[in-house]
Design a protein that fits this description.
With about 260 residues, this protein is α+β, with helices and mostly antiparallel strands. The chain has ten helices and eight strands. It has two domains: about 70 residues, Winged helix-like DNA-binding domain superfamily/Winged helix DNA-binding domain (Arc Repressor Mutant, subunit A, Orthogonal Bundle); about 170 residues, 2-Layer Sandwich (Beta-Lactamase).
């Protein structure tokens, strides 16, 4: 095993032993690893989803929960949410997407498209910025401000186009608006000509933070009547998807235990 891999594993085992959040200063003191080195390894682990950065420190991430419990969390979410993605695409005629937080970005988990929907450049499996996408803003609205601030960093954020917000403070205001309104809005900040509305999703009993969205051409979605109709369809689907995520997993049939 390489020295780098060994140090990364040492940090994961340390986080597992301590439980909860631990500050970088404490981690450095108790592991004997200097802060700069520890932060470098933690940042890599965060990018893979096996460590999470919080305002007060660090903890294990969702990917390790998946491995440890052998429960494919993302697969479960995709399976339960897929019918509602298809409903959104069918009723709006646009693309519907499912995404979740993975490290410091959003990852697309699934998509449903209608025949006329605008083809997006991103596909399931792609990682996208949180600060300039509808799903990203919806996900940020779920997080405590200190955690969202830590993920965004000091800025300026990379500019995708002339509508992209690059000041983390402006993005945090957008997240606050999304929290109040119940949905995040991407106004061509990631793809020119494309508008996205997204609503947050949680998976009880895990650190999963996700969002479900509808995306379409700005020329069509700026129409107030269409926007309100799409928001209504999205809200109904998001509510039903959340209920599906909160439902207990089906148990074995009585015959199975006989």
């Amino acid at each position: 095993m390489s020295e780098s891999a060994g140090k990364a594993l040492d940090l994961l085992f340390y986080l597992a032993r301590t439980g909860g959040e631990v500050s970088l200063a404490r981690l450095s003191r108790e592991t004997g690893m200097n802060k700069a080195t520890a932060l470098r390894y933690l940042s890599v682990l965060e990018s893979r989803g096996v460590a999470e950065r919080h305002g007060g420190g660090w903890s294990l991430g969702l990917s390790l929960f998946e491995l440890g419990s052998r429960v494919p969390i993302r697969s479960i979410v995709v399976e339960r949410v897929r019918p509602f993605l298809e409903r959104i695409a069918r009723e709006t005629g646009e693309s519907a997407n499912l995404a979740c937080l993975a490290g410091g970005s959003a990852i697309y988990l699934d998509r449903a498209e209608a025949d006329r929907s605008l083809r997006m450049r991103s596909v399931p499996g792609d990682r996208l910025p949180l600060y300039c996408t509808g799903v990203g803003k919806a996900i940020l609205s779920l997080l405590p401000e200190d955690r969202a601030r830590a993920i965004l960093g000091p800025g300026p954020l990379p500019r995708i186009n002339d509508k992209t917000l690059t000041d983390p403070e402006d993005v945090l205001k957008e997240a606050a608006k999304a929290r109040e309104a119940g949905f995040g809005l991407d106004r061509e900040e990631y793809e020119t000509g494309l508008t996205c509305m997204a609503m947050p999703l949680r998976l009880p009993g895990s650190d999963f933070a996700g969002a479900i969205s509808v995306s379409g051409p700005t020329a069509r979605m700026r129409d107030p009547a269409i926007r309100e109709r799409f928001l209504s369809i999205l809200a109904q689907a998001a509510g039903d998807a959340q209920a599906a995520l909160e439902a207990p997993a089906p148990g074995p049939s009585p015959e199975a235990g006989a």
